[in-house]
Amino acid sequence: MPMTPAPVKDIQFVAEQLFNLEEHYKKLPEFSEIDAETFETIVDEASKFLFEYAAPLNRNSDEQGCRIEDGNVTPPDGFVELYKAYCESGWSSLDGNLEYGGQGLSYWLQTIVGELNTFYCPGWSNYPGLTHGVRELLEHFASDEIKSKYLPNLTTGVWTGTMCLTEPHSGTDLGMLKTSASPQGDGTYKINGTKIFITSGDHNLTENIIHLVLARMPDSPKGTKGISLFLVPKFLNDERNPVGPASIEHKMGLNGSATCVMNFDGATGYLIGEANKGLNIMFTMMNGARLNTGIQGMAVSSASFLGALDYARERLQMRSLTGAKFPEKSADPIIVHPDVRKMLLTQKAISEGNRALTYFTTQQIEISRFSDNEEERQKADQVVAILTPIVKAFMTETALEATNYGIQVFGGHGYISEHGMEQLYRDAKIFTLYEGTTGIQALDLLGRKIMQFNKGSLGPLADIVNEFVENNPQNPYSKELSELMKQWQSLIIELTAKSMKNMDEMGAASVDFLMYSGYVLLAYFWAQTYQEAEKGGRFGQSFYNGKMKTCEFYFKRILPRAQTHVKTMLSGAESLMDIKDEEFY
Predict the structure, then answer these.
(1) Quick one: which of 319, 337, 405, 437 has the most CB atoms within 10 Å?
(2) Which residues participate in catalysis according to the annotation?
């Protein structure tokens, strides 16, 4: 991608002004000493580090990819040195538990470092990324012995971690998995099976790799109720455990990330948590991975936008329809053309709106974990449950649109690899697929989170948005936002009634419902952004003017899409389900 610095100013605005990070942390005793200056310094230093060390490796990592030799994976050139510098600079341990060698800083800061990793080099971002989820899961569910042995090196980045779920025959349907775990009578198990699509399954960045593996013990119940979770290290007491990569997947994009087929041939493993509760335990990591995937989508959207913006300001092509804007030049920069501006504004509205959604979700996660108010923790947990599938699916689907426009702004130059715009699109596609496809997220949102757990309600999330509307009647977008909130709830009631008669109605409506939900949430964040931008501040008037005008663009040209989703989701399942299999041909 173009060597463009990350939008640190926008990150600071959203964190400091839109979501008032200092007030947020004053309510969380664990992080009460974090102020805006500390937050800003860490973000700025992380961006500088990754701009210097990660960004220059991006294009080569895509072109070179990973290779496997003698049963070992070698990542692209420069990744070993980058990872070493990353850990030595403390970025891997930022939010780590002090007990295990971490720095005890906030999850939000670590999330932003993850965003910057993807912004500068998507293929690199997965190596440190999943380890945080492994660490979090072990802190919650592992024995004290496992914690003391594995968490210090996972926290400091000396070791990395993976999640091994999917198998060739099962895909998302994990109840079909066949990987076995045979007890050895000494507290260990022998793990046998094959896992596919394993991110960072093997590499030479670290001394050891800790795999979290779903497997089935003898006589376990069939389906998802018979799945247990095991920790399987690559090296066990300095000896190679019989686990390793059978091959590397040949992919559309994200070539710098080693996606492996992993064979477990009697590898020694340790049970984590209760037997047959493995899938429930793994959801701790899976939900974090889903949020991180959404953030990856937001990050590449941002990178594509800023690259396209720089190009549009410089590329000369034709004259403005209303007369030459730069008569001293041979042609006007393409940014003067309405269609180019539409694409750029769409990228800006999507990437910046999704950044607000990301940081809001991160705040809610921190409240759910660290607030000393039980009621606040429970409400935040409900909000996060609903937002997780939206963050994962909406932010990755819109990333495809944003990165597609990045190519389009460049024209033919965007289609060739020289400028890096087509790479961003290819890299972004996997974000809609791994950690559960958009369809899976949509069923989770509408079927499980809203209809089942929330009994047909948006719960505290609706309260947060409605409170903003009620407290800010002067906001020019409050009235429309209020109507959208009423419509959102009425759609839930109508879809619930239809689904009670025919569950295919839920399946037919779910993706449109999720996308509708995403557009409504971005309307809330853009209305909130408009209000903060009106106040001005230290970032300069043109910055705030741009926020207010992008908000206007969003409400006029992007938000109307929500009503198309309404019409589609209410059209029913009949047009999908009545066609017979043989009639597809």
Answers:
(1) 405
(2) 435
